[in-house]
C-alpha cells in the first residue's frame, strides 16, 4: 500500500538538486524581455500617452489595447476586467501598455521614456467610502455582489434570548507572498500560441488566451512550469500575465518572457479581501445561541474577478462550526479603486473565522461561561443542521478535534495555572512585565466548490498504462508544492495494485491533459483525487475484461501487479498492458466527477448542501506578551484537524504547519500600508512574513473521520489551517492581558490601543 | 572584465560587467539556475550561495568581488549522484514543498553544519532566519537539518 505511507515526493529529487525548472530558469532563442506599464493613479481618464520622440523606439515592441485581436477582457466570472486599460483607469497599477526589448536593462530604460497624463477623478479607497456612495464606481450602489442566507425566524430567536451580544470585527488585506514571483513565457507558433509559466489553473489561462486572441482549443496551449508556491495568488492573475506576454509575442513574432520582480508582484497582484464583519447574537442563560445575525462587507477592489465566490464562501462559513436555528446572514462585496482582491488560501473563511471565534470569546466573557464550554454547548454534531440548512450526514470530526487539541495541549490545566501566575505577578507589582496567555479556536472548512459548482464543473481526469505497464495520470490539477503529483500517484498505485515508483503524472499541458478544474478550494485531493481513482478503476476494469476473455476465466482479479483467477496467477500487469496496446493502440480511461447522492443545493435561495463534506479543526495558542513593548510572541501551537484520511501524513502535516504559520502572520505581523490607493510597503524589507524565528513549537494532530466519497476516505486539507491561528492568538492575548482584540494583525500599536480601551 | 573563480570545485572564467549581480552571473553566464531570485534585495535568501565558507545573498554581491573565490551552489551539494545528507534528510522529512526556497535553505544549512556539527534547534532557527519559506512553516526544514546533523 502506498496510501498512508510517507513515500518520497515525486518532485523531491529535482527540487533538492536545483534541477527543477521554474519559469525564470528557461532560456529560449530570440526571447525578448517584456514589461508592463501601469497606472500611477487610482481613478481617472487617460488624457495622453507620450513616447519620448528623442528616444530610439526601433528596438522596442509596444502594445496597447488596440493590438488585442479578440475582446479586451480577462475571462473569469464576468467580462469586466480589461487586459489593458482603454480610456479610464480604475486602480493604481492597472496595466495600460506593454513593451518588450532584447534585455531587462533596455526595457527598463525604454519605460522611463513613456509618459502618461491623466484627468484624475476622486477615488473610493475603503469599504466605508464605497458604502457612502459619494461616487458611484460600480452599478448603482457600488455593490459587486450580495448574498442573503436565512433560516428559522430571527425575530422569534431574539425574543427567546436572555442576552443579545454584539461585536464588530475587522480583517486586513494579506499578500500571498509565494517566494517565486509570478511570471510567464509566450511563444508564438504560426496561428497557435503557447504560454508556459507559474500557475495554479492551466485551463483558466487557456480560456483567457482563447478569448483574447480568437484561438481554438487546440491553438491555445498552456503549460505549467514548476511553480514556487501559489496559495491562491496564482489562481486568476496568471491569466493576465500570460495574455500580456502573449500580446507582446504576437506582435514581435518572437518568444517573450514577462517576470515580475517582488515590488511589482506585491503592488499589482490580488490580495486577501479585507472585511468588516458584525455579529449580533441572541444567547440563552445556559449559553445556547438562539439567534444569529451576521453582516459581512468585503472590499472587492476595482473589478469583479473572483469576489462573488470569495464572498459566498465567507457568508456560508460565517456562523462557524456552530448550531443556531434562527440565522440571518447578509453579505456584500463593494467596489473600491484598489487592485482587485482575489483568492488566498481560505477564500473568505479566515476573515469570518476571526470574527466568529472572537465573538465566541466575547459571548463567553459577557455570559461568564468558560470559552471552551461555550463552544462545546454550541458545536455542530453529526445530524445537526448548518446555517444553509444542510444536515451533516457524515464525517463530522468536530468533537474529536476539539478534544484532541484541548487534551494534547493541556489547555484547561495551563489556563488555570497561567491565570494564577498572571494574577500573582500583577498583585506583587513585580518587575517582570511579561504576561502569558493561552487561547483556543474552533473552525471548519467546506472542501470543493460551493453548492452546485462541482456538479457543473464535472472535473475530468484520466489514467493510461503504457506498454511497460507504467501508469500515467492525465490531469490538469497542478503541483504547486502541496504534493498533488505524489498523492495522485499513491492513489493510482493502490487502486491498480501497482508500485508507487512505477506511477507518474503527465506534465500539466492543456494539449495533453483534460480539464480537472482549477487547483483551488481544497478540492485537489478530495474531488480530483477521487476522479483519478475512478479513472484508474476504469482502466483496470478494461484490462480485467481483456484478460478474462483472453484466458477464458470468468472472474479475474488484479493483485499486486498480477492478474489472478481462481487463486492461479495468469499474467503480469505489464505483460497484459503490452498485449492490449498491441491490439488496441492504447490503454487509457477517463472519469468524470459526479456528486455524491442526496446532495442538493438551491442556488436561488442559497440553501441546502453548501459542500459535500467539511473538514474540522481546533487550535490552541500559547503566547507571551511583553507589557513594556506590547510585543506578542507565540510559543506553542497545538492543532488538531480532521481531514478524513491522510494520503501522505508528512505532506498533510506540511500543509497544516505551513498554513498555520501563514495564519500566524495574518494574526500578528502582516499589514499592507496604503497611500492613495497604492501599497507603499511592497517589499520584503517592510512587508513582514514569519521567519524561522517567529515559528512557534507546533504539535499537529491528524484526526481521520473518513469521508465515504473521498479517495480512501480523504477530505480537503489545504485551506483549513489558515482559519485557526489568528483567533487562537487573539484569544490568548485576551487571556494574557484582558485586551479584547477585534482587529488583526495584533501589532504592538493595536494591542496598546486595545488595552487603553479595556 | 574577466573574472576567475571556482564553482562547485571547477575553475570558471567569465567576461562580465564588474557590477553584474553574482546571481545573474550564475544563472545567465554559467546557467546554474538552481540559485533563485525571490526579492532582489537580500531579504528572502533564495539566492544564497557559499563563498569562501560564508553564506551570502548572491543578489547583493557584484561580480567584481568574487575574483579568486571558491563558491558552492545547490548544484554542488550532491556528489557523484549521491545526495548530500541534508538533501536526503529534506527528502525524508518533507523539508521541500514548492522548492523555490529549498536551494537557499540547503546552502544555509550546509554552512551551519560545516561549522557546527550538532546544532540545537535554536541554532538551526538562527542559521536559517535569513531564508524565507512560505510553504512549510519551517517545522519540517528544522527537523530535516536536525536529522542530517544526527546522521553525519
How much of the residues of chain A is beta strand, in percent? 15-25%
Q: Using CB atoms under 8 Å apart, which protein chain pair has the greatest interface?
A: A-B, 55 and 55 residues
Parts with pLDDT < 50 across at least 5 consecutive residues of chain A: none
Write down how many β-strands of chain B occur, each being a DSSP E stretch of 2 or more residues: 5
Cα radius of gyration of chain B in angstroms: 15 Å
- Roughly what is the average pLDDT of chain B, rounded to an integer? 97
Topology, number of strands of chain A: 30
Helical segment count of chain A? 19
Descriptive overview:
The complex is a heterodimer of chains A (758) and B (152). In chain A, 30% of the residues lie in helices and 25% in strands. Chain A is an alpha+beta fold. In chain A, the strands form 8 sheets. Chain A has a 7-stranded mixed sheet, with helices on both faces. In chain A, helix 9 runs parallel beside helix 18. The longest helix of chain A has 27 residues, at 524-550. Chain B has 152 residues and is an alpha+beta fold. In chain B, 34% of the residues lie in helices and 15% in strands. The mean pLDDT of chain B is 97. Chains A and B meet through helix 1 and helix 17 of A and helix 2, helix 3, helix 4 and helix 5 of B.
